[in-house]
Amino acid sequence: MKILGIDTSCDETAAAIVVDGRDVQSNIVASQIKAHEEYGGIVPELASRKHIEAINYIVNRALAEADTTFDDIDAVAVTNRPGLIGALLIGVAAAKSLAYCHNLPLLGINHIEGHIYANYMVHENLTFPHICLTVSGGHTLLVEVHEGWKYKVLGTTQDDAAGEVYDKVAKYLGLGFPGGKIIDDLATKGNPAAIDFPRPMLRSGDYQFSFSGVKTSVRYFVEKAERAGTIDSGEVTIEDIAASFQAAVVDVLVAKTVQAAKTTGCHTITLTGGVAANSKLRSSLKEAAQKIGAEVYYPPFSLCTDNGAMIAGIAYEKYQQGQRDELSLNAAANGSIVDVSDIF
Ligand code: KG4
Ligand code: ZN
Q1: What would the mean pLDDT of 45-53 be, rounded to a whole number?
Q2: Mean pLDDT of the chain
Q3: Which residue among 19, 39, 249, 308 is least enclosed by CB atoms within 10 Å?
Q4: Tally of CB atoms within 10 A around 55
Q5: Among 62, 119, 120, 68, which residue's Cα sits nearest to residue 91?
Q6: Read out DSSP for 76-98?
Q7: Residues 211-220: what's their mean pLDDT?
Q8: What percent of the chain has pLDDT over 90?
Q9: If you measure from the C-alpha of residue 229 to the centroid of ligand 2, how many angstroms do you get, rounded to a whole number?
Q10: CA-to-CA distance for 180 and 178, rounded, in angstroms?
Q11: Which ligand 1 atom is at minimum distance from the Cα of 162?
Q12: Which of 31, 111, 181, 301 to mutate to test the pocket of ligand 1 (most atoms within 8 A of CB)?
């Protein structure tokens, strides 16, 4: 079954063609980073306008690269929640028009479910249940994933998402946007023990996260160091700040994920979302998981960050489960993973 998957939930216009959930025939992503860079973050109105400019071209490229036409497409899937409402609406309007014109079934997909599915697309031996940590610019979510794509939410962030703090800390350090990869690279040259940033909620005894405290600590530290001239004098390096900040975030993510695996007895862990590309998170999680005999899986970078393939992938499962949406399908800025599963 060949599905066209569309995602315009944030700042990437994405379309892909996937056969039977796993066979990615094309995966086209137009990044808007250049347009948002000068603002140091995503400007929602600008994102919507850029999606309008790109959507038809990106869908056509996805079809061309897969060497296919609408005659061979069996369904159109689109992220309709959660995300920036104006941005989501562009993808939803495009998907509805295409489904209507070509008389194809339409499926509205939860973006986070797409991220969770990404690992299943590339790891054929992935078993259920498993623990999935989704970390991106908009989400931090720890869930148990059960057979049939049913989820039990263990925890989420009470304030900023993990990727969001990477981006904000990079902004305080004048490093550019998005900050995750820049900090990841700088951190390899710094000392993670140089500055003792807080590890919020590390010992809260649950699976909730909070990252705004660590972000504020970095900001105060940088402001103080600038006043004292210790950054200019080289006494404190940007690399040390990056490494120490990263260590604080990664310590909390790893501790809670491994604790979840230990407590639930699920010895398979998956990592997904843009922050899953982080080298320190990958290595630390693998190391900590090994100690309890758990296996860690993560997708290739092209499936970590926002893309249409993961949307077409999970849509295949949803189609098998009977999901079909009306042309009245709407977008929603919020949309918890629990709205797709009422089992827990
Ligand atoms: O999944 P994604 O493409 O979009 C959302 O759904 O939000 O994730 C983007 C986020 C950004 O915050 C970016 O800074 C972060 O992923 N990111 C990273 C790395 N690469 C991207 N964070 C840490 N380390 C990285 N290597
Ligand atoms: Zn995402």
Answers
A1: 97
A2: 95
A3: 39
A4: 23
A5: 62
A6: EEEEEESS-HHHHHHHHHHHHHH
A7: 97
A8: 92
A9: 38
A10: 6
A11: 12
A12: 181
Q: In degrees rounded to 5, what are phi and psi of residue 3?
A: -120, 135
Cα 137 to middle of ligand 2, angstroms: 7
What's residue 232's pLDDT?
A: 82
pLDDT digits (tens, 9 = 90+) for 231-276: 889 899 999 999 999 999 999 999 999 999 999 999 999 999 999 9
Residue 340 has pLDDT above 80, yes or no: no
Ligand 1 pocket mutation, candidates 166, 169, 172, 310, criterion most atoms within 8 A of CB: 166
Amino acid letter at 316?
A: Y
DSSP for 100-139 reads HHTT--EEEEEHHHHHHHHHHHH-TT--SSEEEEEE-SS-
Mean pLDDT across the stretch 117-123? Answer: 98
Report the half-sphere exposure of 24 (CA within 13 A, side-chain side).
Answer: 19
Is the pLDDT at 336 greater than 90? The verdict is no
Q: Are 298 and 286 in contact (CB under 8 A)?
A: no
